[in-house]
Write a structure and sequence with these properties.
Number of helices: 15
Oligomer: single chain
Distance between the termini: 91 Å
Shape: rod-shaped
CATH superfamily of the largest domain: Nucleotide cyclase, GGDEF domain
Number of strands: 19
Length: about 525
């Protein structure tokens, strides 16, 4: 911590007297023989030095101290009869004034108070001059496009500001639950992979856990709350600073010196705080952008295999519960099946078959999405779609019938186009089955392979009806017919023909069936 005043005197009585007079300040006393060391390691605002010292004069000593602290404010303490004679030399050495013995308490307090105000103002100006450029570095950090760029920029700036012997940024690895070095200076490369620190362990782990910075200077480190963790006596000064953004801690910044006379002060914490916060914000922004990009890539990939609505459900689900994702719902199912698909496989070259199926499924997919249905799956020569499950519809059955009518019309155009390439396409056709009722919709499968689908009797009936339908007929069940009847303003343009009670494979009861004309 920054001391207010340093008194250099070989007289114990004077030390006690000055301490009592300036009791509102933090006053440290030292002998003339200790002055150089203390002044280097312990920043102060004002120095009081007596003229009569052992082996050196106060003026000579202050001259030497000013080489390490050129801006320090000093007062020379001398006997009253000497002050006039010493004044020119004292002023030339940089003293701000003289204090005569015996000391006048009011005079001492007045001169020191003005000096402290001047020192505080000068420090604030210096602090602002040092800090203002640092705020501009935020643009550089935020302009970085990757985590290594941010960390390297951070270490470059700190290296310029501190000339430290050792720098490192340790980021928290959530998977392993440890801090790892993500960027460093002055640390042997072979050591970096070996360093893993758990929260609460060692100094960096404690700083991470407590989210409070720490300064460790060699002279005062034994009084620190980290004294029991100090393992490297060669370090003369060090700072560990937590990197926190939006109440989330990302890691720890470590800066240290192994030789020299440089010591850290509270002002260094402020500088490191600005740099660490800016870097942490940049890291958080990069991670957010990467997470969003990954989610977009994943969603785009998923939508090539499942409907967009299914992709959204899967992405928003808890990954630990995704296998159990699903529920029983009342929905409408549309099943469309290509007639004479076996002949297609036998008669057509496989590349041609693939191209036709791609166009066929494209027509189905675009039409189903247009009518706000969900493509459940492609099954070789068939398509299964669901209406009213993931997207709410006023009348899912009517929407499914509209979709089937649109697909039938567009399939006719597709078939005509392919007939011009190969006469075999004259023989292909479609069949549709539409049912409505309770079914399970969700994930089915193993821990390693899941399928988000619908299962239930109504799904089986839709498939059987589609297999039975020929000439692009659309077969519907009684439940679907009743739904159509609830919308006379629309269903008036659709005629139904009763097919009667159909016996379907795998269904133990007959199914009343109607054909949409």
């Amino acid at each position: 911590m920054l001391a207010d005043i340093l008194l250099i005197s070989d007289q114990r009585e004077l030390c006690q007297q000055v301490t009592e007079i300036l009791d509102e300040y933090d006053v440290d006393c030292c002998l003339s023989s200790e002055a150089s060391r203390v002044c280097v390691h312990q920043p102060v605002r004002v120095i009081l030095v007596t003229e009569q010292l052992k082996g050196v004069s106060g003026i000579e000593l202050f001259d030497m101290l000013r080489t390490s602290r050129p801006g320090v404010i000093g007062f020379l303490i001398a006997e009253q009869e000497q002050t006039v004679a010493l004044c020119p030399a004292a002023m030339e050495s940089g003293f701000s004034g003289l204090l005569s013995c015996p000391l006048n308490p009011e005079q001492v307090r007045s001169k020191v108070a003005k000096a402290m105000e001047a020192a505080a103002l000068r420090e604030e100006n210096s602090r602002l001059r040092a800090l203002l450029p640092l705020y501009g570095l935020g643009e550089n950090f935020l302009g970085s496009t990757s985590q290594p760029d941010v960390l390297e920029s951070l270490l470059d700036v700190i290296a310029d500001q501190t000339a430290a012997d050792s720098l490192s940024v340790m980021l928290y690895d959530e998977e392993e639950g440890v801090l790892r070095i993500a960027a460093s200076r002055g640390i042997p490369e072979e050591m970096i992979p070996k360093i893993k620190i758990k929260p609460g362990d060692k100094i960096a782990g404690r700083v991470f856990e407590e989210r409070r910075p720490v300064i460790l200077n060699q002279e005062t480190q034994n009084d620190s709350r980290f004294a029991d963790l100090l393992k490297r006596p060669e370090i003369v000064s060090a700072v560990s600073f937590p990197m926190v953004v939006r109440d989330r801690i990302l890691g720890v910044l470590n800066v240290s010196y192994t030789d020299g006379d440089i010591r850290f002060a509270d002002s260094d914490i402020e500088i490191l705080g600005i740099l660490s916060t800016q870097a942490a914000l940049a890291l958080e922004n990069i991670r957010t952008r990467e997470a969003m990009a990954q989610e977009i890539r994943l969603q785009a990939l998923l939508e090539q295999y499942v409907a967009p609505e299914v992709a959204k459900v899967l992405l928003e689900s808890d990954s630990n519960l995704i296998r159990d994702l699903g529920a029983v719902k009342v929905a409408t199912v549309l099943f469309a099946d290509i007639r004479n698909f076996t002949g297609m496989v036998q008669q057509l070259p496989l590349p041609v078959l693939r191209d036709f199926l791609n166009e066929f499924f494209q027509v189905f997919t675009e039409t189903i999405f247009e009518y706000r249905g969900t493509v459940d799956k492609f099954m070789g020569d068939a398509v299964l779609a669901v209406f009213g499950a993931l997207i709410e519809l006023d009348n899912a059955s009517w929407t499914a019938v509209e979709t089937a009518l649109a697909i039938r019309e567009r399939f006719a155009a597709l078939k005509k186009n392919w007939q011009g390439r190969d006469n075999f396409f004259d023989s292909i056709d479609l069949g549709f089955g539409i049912t409505r009722g309770e079914m399970f919709m969700g994930n089915v499968g193993s821990a390693r392979r899941l399928d988000y689908t619908v299962i239930g009797t109504e799904v089986n009936i839709a498939q059987r009806l589609a297999s039975a339908a020929t000439s692009s007929r659309i077969y519907i069940t009684e439940a679907v017919r009743k739904d159509l009847a609830r919308m006379p303003e629309k269903s008036g343009g659709v005629q139904l023909e009763s097919i009667g009670e159909m016996t379907l494979k795998g269904v133990h009861y007959t199914v009343p069936t109607f054909s949409v004309l």
